[in-house]
Amino acid sequence: MSGDWINAVTMNEVANQYDQWQMQKQMMQALTQKDYIDITAITTYKEALEAGIRVEVFERELHEIALDSPIKEIRYNGERVIPGEYVLKGTPLTATISPRYEATSLQTTETTSTAVEKETGNTTTTQATIDTTTTTSSSDR
């Protein structure tokens, strides 16, 4: 047994262990991507909704919550889930966000009447239609 042969055997063992570790790492990554949610990856209201997480929000009339509103925290059974943890998909989680509100386009009720006259014999009847939909956008305010 020469020193070169011992080095070759040692290097083969190290390479074999490294290959096994890489295979295990790939299996874990595939498992986490398929079956688990990386809590660190959930940073916005939209991502929380897409992940199926219940979101606690306070809604304002005539406003929408911006989809890029940041997540404050995520909880499971009242306990805060620590960033960096993985949670099995389908686990009932609740997120709290820092909502950013955006004004929505709204329907106002301005009344405009249009008269249509019809002649029937010697009498004239008038029908009035009322248009009650005028759209204003957030830039009009």
Write up what this structure looks like:
- The chain is of the alpha+beta class and 141 residues long.
- 28% of the residues lie in helices and 37% in strands.
- A hairpin with a 2-residue loop joins β4 (71-76) and β5 (79-80).
Task: Write the SSE topology.
Elements (H helix, E strand, L loop, with lengths): L2 H33 E3 L6 H6 L3 E3 L6 E3 L5 E6 L2 E2 L5 E3 L4 E5 L3 E3 L2 E3 L3 E9 L2 E9 L2 E3 L5
Parallel strand pairs: 2-7
Antiparallel strand pairs: 1-6, 3-8, 4-5, 4-7, 9-12, 10-11
H/E series: HEHEEEEEEEEEEE
Q: What is the terminal-to-terminal distance?
A: 88 Å
Q: Which strand-content bin applies to the residues?
A: 35-45%
Shape: rod-shaped
Number of strands: 12
Number of helices: 2
Describe the structure using short key phrases.
141 residues; alpha+beta; four-stranded mixed sheet; two-stranded antiparallel sheet; 2 helices; 28% helix; disordered C terminus
Brief overview, please?
The protein is α+β, with helices and mostly antiparallel strands and 141 residues long.
